[in-house]
Specification:
single chain; 123 residues; alpha/beta; 4-stranded mixed β-sheet; 27% helix; globular
C-alpha cells in the first residue's frame, strides 16, 4: 500500500538555521543569554544549615534566611532576572495529600517573606 501526497514536500528535513525563520533565533547561539535563565534556589528547615542537593550538582539547600540573602545578589550579579524556590521537605512532614504545601509557616512562605524583608521592591 502506498501513499500519494499532493503538494511539494521536501524529501529531507532542513537542518540549516536559515531554513525556517522562527528557528533562526534559537540556532543563533549554543547557549542562552542570562536574561533567559531562572536560578534554582533550594531551601530547607534549620537555622544556618546547608547540605548538597544530590540531584542538582553544585547546588546547596540552605535555610531560607541564608538563601534569600545571597541568591538574589548572585542572580543580579549574573544578570539572571528570576529565581525559583524549591523546598527540601523533611520526610516526616511529607503526607500523601501534600499538606505541607499549604502550611503558611512552610519553607516556601518563609522564604518568600525573607525575600520580601530583604528586597521589598523585587518580591
Amino acid at each position: 500500500m502506498g501513499f500519494d501526497f499532493a503538494g511539494s514536500f521536501p524529501l529531507a528535513a532542513c537542518a540549516g538555521c536559515g531554513a525556517m525563520n522562527f528557528r533562526a533565533g534559537s540556532c543563533a547561539s549554543i547557549g542562552s543569554p542570562p536574561d533567559d535563565l531562572i536560578y534554582p534556589v533550594f531551601v530547607l528547615d534549620g537555622a544556618k544549615r546547608e547540605e548538597p542537593v544530590r540531584f542538582a550538582a553544585g547546588h546547596l539547600a540552605q535555610d531560607p534566611w541564608i538563601s534569600c540573602s545571597m541568591m538574589p545578589r548572585l542572580c543580579a550579579k549574573l544578570s539572571i532576572p528570576a529565581l525559583a524556590l524549591f523546598p527540601v521537605v523533611a520526610s516526616e512532614r511529607k503526607t500523601p495529600d501534600g499538606a505541607e504545601a499549604w502550611n503558611p509557616e512552610g519553607l516556601v512562605p518563609r522564604a518568600v517573606r525573607a525575600l520580601k524583608d530583604r528586597f521589598p521592591i523585587s518580591a
